[in-house]
Every structure is written in structure tokens, then in C-alpha cells.
Write a structure and sequence with these properties.
The complex is a heterodimer.
Chain A (H helix, E strand, L loop, with lengths): L1 H14 L2 H7 L4 E3 L9 E12 L7 E12 L2 H15 L10 E16 L5 E14 L1
Parallel strand pairs in A: 1-2
Antiparallel strand pairs in A: 2-3, 3-5, 4-5
Helix pairs in contact in A: 2-3
Chain B lengths: L9 E4 L2 E2 L4 E14 L10 E15 L3 H10 L5 E7 L8 E17 L2 E11 L4 E4 L1
The chains are: A alpha+beta, B mainly beta.
């Protein structure tokens, strides 16, 4: 399945980045939904939009993925976001059965989720455009 | 009558299929006319001359060695048979063929867009409109 192959490629790309995993304290990288209490810094990515382009007979896909840090401090979230950006923006994604065309950051994600009077989770990251063809 | 989309189209140049990365194909035939009106005529009088035509193909640019080969085959001034099957090559579908000359080609790139090629032909003979 194209989605599975792409998300596996995205996960592997993030997982292989030692700067990112060092900041997270492991491979705390999750697709769509993190488990309960994963830690004070982790990464969540999820499909945001797009799909097949249907512009020519040979297949091509143009999708958007939100890839963001979720951390207990803004500073930590910013650092993880920076590592995500280095790992993805203008780099090559290896997707089984497909050829990478382009991976670029197109938008930023930046908000706070209050979890109590003095506690919050800071979300920082970006929306990445991923173009692949068969 | 059934309509159709372009997904089954077949395009070949000099006997080689170039459909794989095509995005749009325009096939244009036009009659030649000259104005034969006299000064006292109330309406324009046209006389027909030769029929001519041209075709234009927009395709995704092909990278690497395959790109070099395709681009070379589409060199300006190259002449050969241009074949176009709007609905594909299944039996009974339309088969348009004409001897044509590549009159221009354009390679368009943008920083964050997939590169495209645009190939233009002028027809050099009669279009045959038959079936597969």
C-alpha cells in the first residue's frame, strides 16, 4: 500500500536521525497517535492531505504530513522541531517501490495544549510536502 | 455516445511510445483560407487553400539517461510519424497519424514544481484518421 510504504519511509528517516533520537531519549516517534504517557518529549506524525496526482500515466503522489514535537517545555519542543527540520527538509526519503522527488517544509505548527493549571504540552513542528513517483 | 478521459491515450513518435509521462496533448487541424472579397462585396468571400495542423504535447520531464534519450528523439527539425490514439489502441479506437516535424521544444523548471517538457510539431502531410 502506498500509504504504508510512505509512512514506513518517513518513520525510518526520523528514526535514523541520531540528533533527533538523542533529544527524545530514544525512538519516541509515533504515527497518528502516541501511547499513554510516552515521555516528556516525543514526535508524532500524521497524514495531513494529498494523495495521487493523476497528472500522467506514470503514478505520482503528492502528500502533506504534519511532523511535530510534543514536549513539556517550549525550549525542548523547539529543539526537537529543529532536529525534525534538519532530518526532513530538502532531503531524500526512501520509500519502497517509489522514487523520491522532493521533501520540503511548507508550513509551521506551533501551539500549546494546556493539561493543568501549571502544566502544558508544547507542539512544534511543520507540515512537510512529500512528492514521490513510481 | 460515450465520453472519455485521457488516461488511455497513446502517443508515439517515430514508432516509439512516449505516453508514459504525458500530461496534455493537443491536436490541431485547420483549414487555410484567403480573403477573396472584392471592394464592393457586402460579405467576406473566402477561398480555401491548404489544410495544415500542429500538435502540442506537455509531459513530465524525464530524469537521467532515459531523459537524454527521449529529449534527443524529440530534437528540433526531426521528422517522422506522429501517432495519437485518444482512447488507446484497442480494436475499433481512433488512430490518428501524420508525418510531422518537431518545430519547438521547451523545458520548464520551477524551484518547487515538477519539471515539464513541451513539444510542438507542425504537420507535414495529411492526417489519416483510421481505426485500430
Amino acid at each position: 500500500m502506498p500509504i504504508e510504504a510512505l509512512e514506513t519511509g518517513l518513520y525510518n528517516k526520523l528514526k535514523a536521525d541520531s540528533s533527533l533520537t538523542t533529544l527524545l531519549g530514544g525512538t519516541l516517534i509515533y504515527n497518528r497517535r502516541a501511547p499513554q504517557n510516552p515521555g516528556t518529549a516525543y514526535v508524532v506524525f500524521q497524514w495531513q492531505g494529498g494523495g495521487d496526482e493523476n497528472l500522467q500515466p506514470s503514478r505520482s503522489r503528492n502528500v502533506l504530513y504534519t511532523v511535530k514535537a510534543v514536549c513539556d517545555t517550549a525550549e525542548k519542543a523547539a529543539a526537537v522541531d529543529s532536529a525534525i527540520d534538519t532530518a526532513l527538509h530538502n532531503t531524500t526519503l526512501t520509500v519502497s517501490g517509489w522514487t523520491n522527488i522532493n521533501v520540503v517544509r511548507t508550513d509551521d505548527v506551533n501551539f500549546v495544549e494546556s493539561t493543568g493549571v501549571e502544566t502544558a504540552y508544547y507542539h512544534a513542528g511543520g507540515i512537510y510536502q512529500i512528492q514521490i513517483d513510481a | 455516445m460515450a465520453g472519455y478521459v485521457g488516461k488511455n491515450a497513446y502517443i508515439a513518435w517515430q514508432g516509439s511510445e512516449i505516453t508514459g509521462d504525458y500530461r496534455t496533448m493537443e491536436w490541431n487541424e485547420e483549414a487555410g483560407v484567403v480573403d477573396a472579397s472584392a471592394g464592393t462585396d457586402a460579405y467576406v468571400l473566402q477561398l480555401t487553400t491548404q489544410v495544415t495542423g500542429n500538435a502540442s504535447l506537455t509531459m513530465r520531464a524525464i530524469s537521467g539517461t532515459a531523459g537524454t534519450a527521449t529529449w534527443s528523439a524529440l530534437a528540433n527539425n526531426s521528422e517522422g510519424t506522429l501517432e495519437f490514439a485518444p482512447e488507446g489502441t484497442a480494436t475499433g479506437n481512433r488512430k490518428l497519424q501524420v508525418n510531422a516535424i518537431v518545430s519547438s521544444r521547451v523545458d520548464t523548471m520551477a524551484y518547487n514544481q515538477v519539471a515539464e517538457w513541451n513539444i510542438n510539431w507542425v504537420f507535414n502531410g495529411q492526417v489519416t484518421d483510421t481505426q485500430y
